[in-house]
Amino acid sequence: MDLTDSPAEAAFRREVRDWLGDHLTGEFADARGLGGPGSEHEAFEVRLAWDRLLADGGWTCLGWPVEHGGRGASTAQQVIFHEEYARAAAPVRVGHVGEELLGPTLIAFGTEQQRRRFLPEIVAVRELWCQGYSEPSAGSDLANVSTRARRDGPDWVIDGQKTWTSLAHQADWCFLLARTGPPGQRHRGLSCLLLPMDRPGVEVRPIVQLTGTSEFNEVFFDGARTAAEHVVGEVGDGWRVAMGTLGFERGVGTIDQQVVFRRELERITGLARTGGALDDPVLRDKITRAWIGLEVMRFTALRTLTGVAEGTAGPEASIAKLHWATFHRGLGELAVEVAGACGLVAAGAPYELDEEQRLFLFSRADTIYGGSNEIQRTIIAERVLGLPKEARP
């Protein structure tokens, strides 16, 4: 695995860097760094306008095939874009669920009619999406989904509840997993449906997080209707579609996440240096170990992405999720440890947090969302190491 840029890749990196430098100006100059973990509410309209400017410049959906509105960018080019985007501290994207999750899912499993209808809107950031998978009794155990959908003439009628639904309060559409077959079948009888969020019978209730913000929500469906043709894949084949989506979630977008982690570590190191905490040999050792952890994470991610490009990535992606989630939670703990006693008191009334405090509080969830650490360890044990399967009821 060659980690140096080829001449063509170096030219692409300059193109990305120059475009970002030229456009993160004017109304977007103050948008740098906005929308990060615990601050997803910040400047939504500005960030939406930024996403649409990216679309106008041809910088959305880079890895999608050209025939579907993308640029057909290689894995290396996508990594370069995400690295430079994060280094420029460009604002967190508002259309990433559609671009990184639903779009690739429709390309892989959708009908031609669905691709024509939805993909251009995602590329142009004219429609925003949320993901309706988790439920109160079906989080990491996704096969326990109980939300139901039944056919009624030309429509599917949906009843149930989803939770931890990120950005549901801003989304135009939701792609959700519902049970269309008999209950008790677990993986069988699930279907992936596309539902407009403005339909009668859809209610969104924000969930207040430890950070005081509400990035995710509860969503209730009470007789909500969507058209019969809005099934992705075959009816009853939703588990395969859902696993495909989760595979896309472990894709190239994790690279810019790691660059953000690096910026956070640099900020913590600077705080330790100016505050004197770096003189403590124990804290200095923890900061050094965090730096080493980031380097290992980067190489592991690039090796995993090589497998994605070759079509061979599988449950090994769980290693990356387990690694970065545990690392980032530890980084949040390190942040408040370096901040010392001041890190235990809100920066202002009634609940104004500084960056280190938001990092600590938000990162507590890293080892839960997107598949808990316990689930990732089970996947690694059974599917990677070949150990006996865990006893299940």
TrEMBL record:
Kindly give the InterPro entries that the UniProt entry links to this protein: Acyl-CoA_Oxase/DH_mid-dom (IPR006091), Acyl-CoA_Oxase/DH_mid-dom_sf (IPR046373), AcylCo_DH-like_C (IPR036250), AcylCo_DH/oxidase_C (IPR009075), AcylCoA_DH/ox_N (IPR013786), AcylCoA_DH/ox_N_sf (IPR037069), AcylCoA_DH/oxidase_NM_dom_sf (IPR009100), Mycobact_Acyl-CoA_DH (IPR052161)
Protein source organism: Saccharopolyspora gregorii
What sequence ranges are listed for the domain Acyl-CoA dehydrogenase/oxidase C-terminal? 236-385
Q: What is this protein called?
A: Acyl-CoA dehydrogenase family protein
The prosthetic group or cofactor this protein requires is: FAD
UniProtKB keywords:
FAD, Flavoprotein, Oxidoreductase
Q: Name one Pfam family in it.
A: Acyl-CoA_dh_1
Q: Where in this chain does the record put each Acyl-CoA oxidase/dehydrogenase middle domain?
A: 130-222
What are the residue boundaries of the Acyl-CoA dehydrogenase/oxidase N-terminal domain, all occurrences included? 7-124
Task: Tell me the lineage of the source organism.
Answer: Bacteria, Bacillati, Actinomycetota, Actinomycetes, Pseudonocardiales
Stated family: Belongs to the acyl-CoA dehydrogenase family.
